[in-house]
């Protein structure tokens, strides 16, 4: 994915973290939808079924767990964006701070690589 700001600058990290935030928000929405579908059970009638045979409990547990992980990751991204909010866009990020932001963005790098590899854009 092309980024308009010079690599290593505050603006570069703001842009990348914003893209990551948006991706995480979409994933959280997808997990919520999966939870809603799991709660409807196999009948699709919208009634909360109390018998385990009527619910996709494994899918529900997986979706809730995934959403929790995504929320934690989004909190980290939001914290990083907050740290960068009042800094000049052309300021260089270096050292341990750069390493921390790069580590946080490693999952975004992977997502972008998969988009390039499989030509999927969400």
UniProtKB/TrEMBL annotation:
Entry superkingdom: Bacteria
Disordered: annotated segments: 33-54
Protein name: Uncharacterized protein
Source organism of this protein record: Alienimonas californiensis
């Amino acid at each position: 994915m092309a980024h308009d700001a010079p690599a290593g600058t505050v603006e570069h990290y703001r842009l990348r973290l914003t893209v990551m935030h948006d991706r995480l928000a979409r994933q959280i929405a997808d997990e919520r939808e999966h939870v809603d579908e799991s709660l409807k059970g196999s009948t699709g009638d919208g009634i909360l079924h109390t018998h385990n045979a009527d619910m996709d409990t494994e899918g529900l547990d997986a979706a809730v767990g995934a959403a929790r992980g995504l929320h934690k990751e989004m909190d980290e991204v939001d914290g990083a964006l907050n740290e960068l909010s009042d800094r000049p866009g052309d300021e260089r990020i270096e050292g341990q701070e750069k390493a921390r932001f790069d580590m946080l963005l490693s999952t975004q790098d992977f997502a972008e690589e998969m988009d390039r590899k499989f030509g999927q854009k969400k």
